[in-house]
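Hey, resending since the last one bounced:
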Amino acid sequence: MKRKIYLCVILIITLVSCDDSLDLNPISAYSAGGFYQTQSDFELASNGVYDILQSLGSKIALDLEARSDNVQDDLQNNYSNNSMHRFLDNETTSDVSSLWIYYWMMIDRCNEIIDKIDDGTFEEEEYRSYYKGEAYFLRGYAYFSLGWQYGGTQIIDHKMKIDEIKTTKRSTQTETLDFAASDLENAASLLPEKWKSYELGKATKYAAQGILARLYLFQKKYSDAKPLLESIINSGYYKMATNYEDCFLDKYDNSSEHVFQIQYISGDLNEGNDFVSQEVPQFYRSELFPSGGCSGANMVSYDLYDSYEDGDFRRDFSIQKGYTDNTGIYDPTTLFYIKFAHGTIPANRSDYEVNLPILRYTDVKLMYAEVLNEEGYKASGEAFEIINKVRSRAGLSALTSSDISLQEDFRTALFKERRVEFSCEFMRLFDLLRTDKAMSVMNTFFTRTEEGSGKYKMEEYRKIFAIPLHELNNMSEEYMWQNPGY
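The structure tokens again:
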């Protein structure tokens, strides 16, 4: 299936572009007048949006993970991710701009599909709904991301001329998230429960429901999230991987553990996963990393490393402590992620086969446990069963009501479990923000010696990123303005 999608992406590049800069221009900028007419056209167009998500993957994984207590400050790192870790980023920071651009590219391509698909000719009518559903899903995901990461943004729900866009006023964060929720609801009503065997990896009804449930948890709308999570759990399509390591091996991509992943394929097609090596020191060589890592890699914090309980298999599978560089110098203290590196080793460091998880079934189950606890603490209830199944897979003993006797204590245990379960999966910042703990956790973390003993600080306004300067320069202040504090 992955090969099918990316052969389609390669074909669309060949058809509509004479160079390799597909990701720098919306598809509408160079599509032929005869395009967007047939079922095949819309299949190609839909795959083109996934292609942007693929390019976006390493950015969100690197930058969102960096902006948390999972990552350690690096005095040698002058790249955007370390500025974002220190909360020193602003409207000119390159990755603040890159994330914004990729989300808007997805929105633009999705709008093109939604605008034109009803007039297209389809041999299989159900695919009209499926491709429209994909466009709603990917647009909803982009607006959700813009909402929680940047605050309110413009709502552009169809193709507009530049002059129209420039006079469309920025919406509030709540309005942006509500629009994303509407898109995800539409997607869930249009997408199939399951694609054909050669189409695995494409968004399904359950992917839309899962991301929508995540959005509702961000808004603390637990009763709205519950039926969505129950729909996924009761579908019969998903189950937790028996072994934790199976969640991150390319041979188990698109397995029942994964509700939605960003798809990658190796083979020097420029479609490989480059994130794996971006978490590894540049001058390290080993069997896992024969081509080494990258400058500006995220280093893992000792705060995260020490948060694993004794006997937790996940720690040493996910994090390596110490390494010998290519000159023979031994560094016994540096920590870095190796979580996604245990599968097929590619010929070059930017060409890993392994997919990047956006929504795992384990996350669905833990979100459901959270909802159950918010409804009311129950000693030895289903929420306990869920968290203990996750712990058992990691080699840990079960928690009981003797260990956790209050609702707030269960919340604490749950989010501790989420931190170690989803380390390197760029969920930590999202969880800190939605639980209103980001400032207290990060500012306590910054008092650590290796973090500069209070040199850095997270302030209230930095719960969201700055609006990129190029966006402000293109819009009048009446319609687009900088987030307060920047």
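Residues 166 and 474 are 8 Å apart (CA to CA).

Sorry for the duplicate.
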